[in-house]
Structures are given as C-alpha cells and as structure tokens.
Automatic annotation (TrEMBL):
GO terms for cellular component: plasma membrane. GO terms for molecular function: 4 iron, 4 sulfur cluster binding; metal ion binding. Residues 216-245 form the 4Fe-4S ferredoxin-type domain. The chain crosses the membrane at residues 12-30, 42-61, 94-115, 135-155. It comes from the Bacteria. Pfam families: Fer4_5, Fer4_9. The keyword Isomerase does not apply. Keywords: 4Fe-4S, Electron transport, Iron, Iron-sulfur, Membrane, Metal-binding, Transmembrane, Transmembrane helix, Transport. InterPro entries: 4Fe4S_Fe-S-bd, 4Fe4S_Fe_S_CS, Electron_Trans/Redox. This is 4Fe-4S ferredoxin. PROSITE patterns: 4FE4S_FER_1 (PS00198), 4FE4S_FER_2 (PS51379).
Amino acid sequence: MKRTVSKRQAVRQALLLVSLLLFPITLYYFSPALILQGGSEGIVTGSAISFALMFLASLLVGRLWCGWACPGGALGEVCTAVNPRAVRGRRLDWIKWAIWLPWISLLAFLVIRAGGYQRVDPLYMTAGGVSVVDAQGYIVYYGVVGLFFILSVAVGRRAGCHTFCWMAPFMILGRKLRNVFAWPSLRLQSDPQRCSDCMTCTQNCAMSLDVNAMVKAGAMEHSECILCGKCVDGCPSKAIQYVFRAGK
Ligand code: SF4
Ligand code: SF4
C-alpha cells in the first residue's frame, strides 16, 4: 500500500502524541494561572520559565513548538479525525490577544505589587515535578483538555491555537522581533514558478492558511504559521521548502 505520510510528518505526529501523553505531568509548566499565583508571591514558576523559553526559541525557530511539541496543538490535531474543517476567518486569531493582553498586564501588576521576582521555583505547585496528582489537578486537566477538544470539534482544525492559546502570543511576538532585525532563522520559502495550483497545501494546512496564495505571492511569513511542514511535505511540485536564513 502507498505510504501517504512522509517520514518527517510521522516523526512530528509521534512527538505530538508523546507530548499529549505527558500532559498530565507537564500541565502546570504551561499554566496561565500558576504564573499569576507565583507572580503574586514573587516566585518565578515553571510556566514562567516555559513561556520565556518559548519566546527565546521563537527568535530562531518561530512557532516550531506549536507545530511539533505542544500538547494542546496535539489534541487539536487528534480532533481533526472528528472535525477536519478548516478554520476560516482571520478575525478569530485576534481573540487570543484580547485574552493575552489583560492577562500579561495582570501578571505585571502582581509581580510589581509583590516587589518583583525574588525566587525561582520550577516545580512550583507540582508534586516532585508531576502536575496532576489529586482531584483538583484532574479538574484543571480535564478543563483544559475539554476546552481544546470542544473548540476543535465545534469550530475546526486547531481552533484552540487560533482563539485562546495564551502561549502563542509569546512566539508571535518573538517572531515579529526577529523579522524587524531580519536575523537568520527557520522559515518557509516558496518557488512560485513550480506551483501547479493543485491546492494540496491550502487543503492540508494545520492552521487553515491560504498557503497557495502565500506561495504565489512568494510571501510565506504568517503569524499563524506553526512550521509544521505539512505543506512542505505534501507539495507534489516541491514548491515549498524549510530554510534557515536571514529575511523578513
Ligand atoms: S501543494 Fe505545491 S503545487 Fe500544490 S498549490 Fe501548494 S505550492 Fe502549489
Ligand atoms: S503554512 Fe505550512 S508550515 Fe505553516 S502551518 Fe500551514 S502547513 Fe504548517
């Protein structure tokens, strides 16, 4: 039988699956609530460290985390088996900023009120590094998983990434900064001459982008692109490539 998933995409899906399976352990390292609680006590929590690392990584590799390792994104992709519909309408992408800006402002307020950060505790509120160990942990876990699940099933492909993900803005900002300075980084590059307008890339894009139009315009930079590489690996004409180079 013909193999329909490239090796790279098989590796990516395996990594996402592992991340999803580890989510009960890692949940609190991505918590938007514990960073506030820790900030109010002057403590740099595990999630504060994770978000800072995501921002720093995005300066070189954009939103690679979202495409290859995020447990929320993994759940979103699993849900495409139920609802593979594309999420059209870029207005949805702004919802996460309406959530993120008040949230990050509240964090800044709490940290300032606490007199600044005084201590680092990567394992804050975990039990020896494990997040979900009791009933309260399970309530939080199923709340987060349920939100990603319901949105993906009701709205479409990776809907949580578009609408409420509190981690994505860190990486979008990092990538915008990278673009301002145009230093070398991982990105997509297209060759419009090769494109045969088969539309496979647009149909398969994990973030429902009009990849064909991006290819034709020779403009592959998009704040919602997660560098999953589905368009790279699915293009029959090899019109899209990963490159590591300087540029906007
Ligand atoms: S998959 Fe390749 S050939 Fe098809 S529309 Fe996209 S870039 Fe063009
Ligand atoms: S444009 Fe390509 S790499 Fe970016 S999200 Fe869509 S399929 Fe993935």
